[in-house]
Design a protein that fits this description.
With 189 residues, the chain is of the alpha/beta class. The protein has helices at residues 2-19, 25-38, 106-113, 127-130, 149-155, 161-166; strands at 40-41, 52-57, 73-74, 77-84, 95-98, 119-122, 134-139, 142-148, 158-159, 169-171, 179-180. The protein has one domain (23-186): Rossmann fold, CATH 3.40.50.
Length: 189
């Protein structure tokens, strides 16, 4: 009897292990956006009556989205994800995720929001070098991120130093070249 119980338990546990899905890249990126936002401060007083907005401009890969729980909050403000199809729709999100579909007009987007305290985030090769503050990239099998330090300093926002240290690459700063951060292989988002 005990042997049957153990076999059934093993089969049940095996079924749970098999059914667990590996998160998609955008689920990982969504979690990173949320966590980085929690460790970022925007200038000026908080308007607690308004939601915290994570904007997305451009088309994400088919079936993907920015995934957040319904009760997600930052600074006690409800988080809302807004999808924009034009620059004119972008008013004042705290975060703007720029999809790879917008690579052809990245300069135009960055110019449009220039001078506004918006944390820009992307996941396309070369975006950080062109002025996006945080850019995700894959190294081996891991999702990493790089920070354009100059764009960050110009934005007026404050990102906690632990986030900056955890980045895989710092672009800009003192010598305006990309630098790998020490022990990058041990840092993940």
């Amino acid at each position: 009897m005990r042997k049957h119980f153990i076999i059934i338990l093993v089969l049940i546990l095996h079924g749970f292990l098999i059914s667990e899905e590996t998160p998609t890249d955008y689920q990982v990126i969504s979690g990173a956006i949320y966590n980085i936002s929690k460790y970022t401060t925007w200038p000026g007083p908080l308007d607690m009556s308004k939601p915290f907005i994570i904007g997305v401009i451009g088309k994400l890969p088919r079936g993907e989205q920015i995934y957040l729980s319904r009760d997600a909050a930052i600074d006690k403000r409800r988080v809302i994800v807004k999808y924009y199809s034009s620059l004119e729709e972008i008013k004042s999100p705290e975060v703007l995720f720029i999809a790879s579909s917008e690579a052809h007009r990245l300069d135009e987007i960055l110019k449009y929001i220039e001078g506004k305290p918006i944390l820009t985030i992307g996941d396309t090769k070369g975006f950080a070098q062109k002025g996006v503050i945080i850019n995700f990239y894959v190294k081996g099998i891991r999702e990493c991120f790089e920070v354009n330090y100059d764009a960050y300093r110009r934005s007026g926002i404050q990102i906690h130093s632990n986030v900056l240290v955890a980045s895989g690459r710092l672009i800009g700063s003192k010598n305006s070249q990309a630098q790998e951060t020490p022990r990058m292989e041990k840092r993940e988002i």
